[in-house]
Write a structure and sequence with these properties.
Distance between the termini: 73 Å
Number of helices: 15
Helix content: 40-55%
Oligomer: single chain
Largest sheet: 9 strands, mixed
Number of strands: 16
Structural class: alpha+beta
Radius of gyration: 30 Å
Strand order of the largest sheet: 2-6-7-10-1-11-12-13-14
Length: 479
């Protein structure tokens, strides 16, 4: 296109608190319809909200992780609108004094190469709305989600390609997970993105008119939505049309968007200070306390894995893509004292079995100790690699204890050098055709001899040891 893409994201994430932001109702996902709501989260007359302290802690922790300034004075505002899934007809949010501002996330620059910073305009606390369930000619409302605490993270329009938009969202998800503030399960709606897109002639300074696509819930959809909307706007301009500021609905199945309504601005929501919640004063001591408990963030962890543990950059990227993989890796590496072997097994056998069983990393149920035990037994040459893989699969699927399973099934390696030498000599003597082919220069023939010896030994010897003894015997014949 002869146009530059300008994109900003507004990402909403549900916080992992036990109770809602202004009442004590449960935030558990999947509860029976309308069983997790009360007079406060459904906006009954006279109900008084009370701020959940944990929400403030999570907001500050997130702000620190996103390099934000934490405002020592913050307050809530009412955002008035008449959506049926918010029964009190307003949302308690933050407009004038949000809790965090002026942060950034570093991503790859897809236009110029290298790295770039996408600035965070602000981060604010607010309550979620309910959910509409459309059933034929009627619409039902589930209020369980009303009042679930949200953080809205608003970027500046610093994103210039679909790839950058997806990467920004993925890096933000990783930070939120590593901070322990949100599970970011997009399939459950706990991370959703509003995508703002405009285009301008290549190199122009003035920004074009933006449109917004609401509640996109996958990284692939974010990428596709940015690309589609940029192309739609460019084609509209080229045909002599005008881009109208509006809210659009993204249809992931059709890979297209549809107009919903004219885009509202802040004045349309008639914001005013929330009268039932006093301004919140945050002390520097409180911020310093949270800062002292901050976990290692994804980029820091990747750097440590590469520079201190000797893991490849690619492996570090994959391991740090999921907190469950990180926990498994760090525990396994500590038990084996071999970060490289631990990473290889996780990115190999663990990922293979996760894929084969359609299991998410967070749902893994086997013990890290079992994986470490298999790796240690293999490195001690007490089992073959084939046995190691088979035993680990049993541990993954059925929870067996590797050392016990190996003992019960007599899978430990045969380390009797005399027995290996005897079997190797018999195999060479009983297979003159393969011996002749090998001595004639057919190197592959030795594979047959090794296979026969391994079969005689019940697979309980090291293939390397077997190969060594067979080569030794062949060498004696050749000489």
């Amino acid at each position: 296109m002869n146009y530059d893409i300008v994109c900003g994201l507004e990402i909403h994430t549900e916080l992992m608190t036990d109770t809602k932001i202004f009442c004590s109702c449960s935030t558990r996902f999947g509860g029976a319809v309308n069983t997790q709501c009360c007079e406060i989260c459904t906006g009954m007359p006279g109900a008084m909200p009370s701020l959940n302290k944990k929400v403030v802690e999570f907001a500050v922790r997130t702000g620190l992780a996103l390099n934000c300034d934490i405002n020592l004075l913050t307050k809530f505002d009412r955002k008035n609108y008449f959506y049926p899934d918010l029964p009190k007809a307003y949302q308690i949010s933050q407009l004038y004094l949000p809790i965090c501002q002026n942060g950034y996330i570093e991503i790859n620059d897809s236009i110029h190469g290298g790295k770039k910073r996408v600035r965070i305009h602000e981060l604010h606390m607010e309550e979620d709305a309910g959910k509409l369930l459309h059933d034929g000619e009627k619409t039902l409302i589930n209020y369980n989600r009303c009042g679930v605490p949200l953080l809205e993270i608003v970027s500046e329009p610093d994103i210039n390609s679909p790839e950058e938009a997806a990467e920004f969202a993925e890096k933000l998800r990783d930070i939120l997970r590593f901070c322990g503030v949100s599970d970011c399960k997009m399939q459950e709606g706990s991370l959703r993105a509003d995508v703002n897109v405009s285009v301008k002639p290549h190199g122009a300074e003035a920004l074009g008119t933006r449109t917004e696509m609401k509640n996109i819930n996958s990284f692939k959809a974010i990428k596709n939505a940015v690309l589609h909307e940029a192309k739609r706007q460019a084609a509209l301009i080229e045909s002599g049309g005008t881009v109208v500021q509006q809210t659009r609905r993204w249809d992931d199945r059709e890979n297209t968007s549809y107009e919903m309504r004219v885009k509202e601005n802040a004045e349309h929501y008639r914001y005013f200070p929330e009268p039932d919640i006093p301004p919140l004063v945050i002390s520097q001591e409180y911020i310093d306390l949270i800062k002292s408990t901050m976990p290692e963030l994804p980029d820091e962890k990747k750097s440590r894995y590469v520079n201190e543990l000797g893991v490849t950059q690619y492996d570090a990227e994959v391991l740090c893509s999921d907190l469950a993989l990180v926990r498994l890796f760090e525990k396994t590496a500590a038990l084996t004292n071999s970060p490289k072997d631990s990473a290889n097994w996780i990115l190999g056998e663990v990922m293979r079995l996760l894929s084969a069983t359609a299991t998410l990393p967070e749902d893994m149920s086997f013990r890290a100790e079992s994986l470490a035990e298999v790796i240690n037994l293999l490195n001690e040459k007490r089992i073959t690699r084939e046995t190691a893989k088979a035993v680990f699969e049993k541990a993954f699927l059925n929870g067996v204890i590797p050392s016990e399973y190996i003992k019960q099934n007599h899978l430990e390696l045969q380390n009797d050098a005399g027995e290996i030498a005897r079997v190797a000599a018999e195999v060479v003597e009983n297979n003159p055709k393969a011996v002749g082919e090998y001595l004639a220069g057919k190197e592959k023939a030795i594979g047959f001899l090794i296979g026969q010896a391994m079969k005689r030994l019940g697979g309980k010897a090291s293939p390397n040891d077997v190969a060594e003894y067979i080569r030794k015997k062949l060498s004696e014949i050749d000489s």
